[in-house]
Amino acid sequence: MIRYFKELTRISYCSTTIVLIVLVLTACSNSKSEETFFPDFSFEMIDGNHVRFTNGSSGEYDLLHWDFGNGESKSTRNKTEQLVAYYHEAGDYDVTLTVTGMDHSTKSVTKSIQISQTDFTVAFNTIVDEANPNYITLENTSERSVDSYKWLYRYKQIENKDTILAYFPYSGTYNIELQVMKDGKTYSSIQTVTISDNDPDYFSKLNLVWADDFDGDVVNSGNWTFETGATGWGNNELQNYTNGSNAKVQDGILTITAKKLNDNKAAGSYTSTRIISSGKKEFTYGRMEIRAKLPSGTGIWPAIWMLGSNIGNVGWPACGEIDIMEYVGYQPNTVHATVHTPAGYGSNGSGSSKTLQTAEEEFHVYGLFWTEKEMVFYTDSIDNVTYRYVPSNKTDDNWPFNKPQFFILNVAVGGNWGGAQGIDNSIFPQSMQIDYVRVYQE
Predict the structure, then answer these.
(1) Could you tell me which CATH class the domain 124-199 is placed in?
(2) Of 398, 169, 376, which Cα lies nearest the Cα of 289?
(3) What pLDDT, on a 0 to 100 scale, did the predictor assign at position 19?
């Protein structure tokens, strides 16, 4: 028993010794890990605006990340590479080298450099027109010998003009950026301006930039393409869109006619026309006005609408859909305006309707006033609003409308909405007549 106790004591003592040794070794290992690398670098002036940097870090490490303090940075595993940074304007700059160790820990060192001469500056003045406070004159005051430059504000880009008159129709705070390009690199200056009031005359200031008044005797192929087929068009529609045989241009009017081929009320039982301006006439923002007279009867579904030009890349509804006017014949004298986005589409689209007693008997203007702030749908006058779409916080989900859209004019038969109360075969043929399509922009 005594011998057994002595053996246990010896084993316990040895175990304690081993644990202490392990703890010491671990502490030494951690201490060594913390001290295995030290960031450092040196620099030398090449000329008044170029500086060469040389890594001087020691120890074992994996990655170098340089922040040159001029808006440029670089990550590299090349420990001996000498890097040259360009500073176009005189001043003091903080340069930071961050080193990542083999255990993913990081250490940094920062040094200041002084640039004594200016190669060029990026600067501009903003001058508010006191008589017209929605206009601001922008003057490029940069000292420069550069390749090119451009202004960026709102959704506009204006290149290589020293002085421009910038227009801000809505109240709010805006960034104005002047970008200067030199030797393949871009340098910029940004200023903020505040516009206190909306321009009450914005709507009337827009200029006619494109129109199709249908003055010829055929559909203008420079403006429109016929989409064809009896594919249901995503809505279980029954018409077959033909390559022009259901469209006529005469006396300044485009007439799109839906015709009945048989009484089967099946896919292909009807023919009609659908024309699109995709790839030919596409627009971002503006005042779109289409003067039209609508067909009538249960089962008919004419539409004047727009789709995002990027639909081939992002699909629907991510491209955005703007239904300027839709009409279903079983709801006579009621016109609809709707917006479809990833945030709400199909039966969950955002929209409204309006009574228009002579929609089938007379021509009316179906309008869209589309700006970076909102969409206003109206009939005949901007004062006669059908629907106003104004997301307070615009995102890609609720506002994919900062990109070009193209027009679509068509008359469908049946479908999920148009045929919701069946089709009256006695109504055919039925036509939508279009006097013009016009686009006004700044």
Answers:
(1) mainly beta
(2) 376
(3) 40
**Which segments in the chain show pLDDT lower than 50?**
1-33
How remote is the C-alpha of 191 from its chain's centroid?
22
Q: Which one of 2.40.50.630, 2.60.40.10, 3.20.20.80, 3.40.470.10 gives the CATH number of domain 39-115?
A: 2.60.40.10
- The verdict on whether 177 is a catalytic residue reads no
Selecting among 60, 326, 361, 442, the annotated active-site residue is 326
Ordered by start, the domain boundaries in the chain are 39-115, 124-199, 203-441
Give pTM, 2 decimals. Answer: 0.80
User: Which of 159, 227, 321, 372 does the annotation list as catalytic?
Assistant: 321
Annotated catalytic, 326?
yes
Predicted confidence (pLDDT) per residue in 78-89, tens digit: 999 999 999 988
Q: What is the pLDDT of residues 167-208, one digit of tens each?
A: 999 999 999 999 999 888 899 999 999 999 999 999 999 999
**Residue 34: per-residue pLDDT:** 52
Cis peptide before 317 (omega within 30 of 0): yes
Architecture of domain 203-441: Sandwich (2.60)
Strand pairing report for 350-355 and 247-250? unpaired
Q: Look at residue 35 in the predicted model and tell me its pLDDT.
A: 63
β-partners of residue 305 are: 323, 408
**Are domains 124-199 and 203-441 of this chain identical in fold?**
no
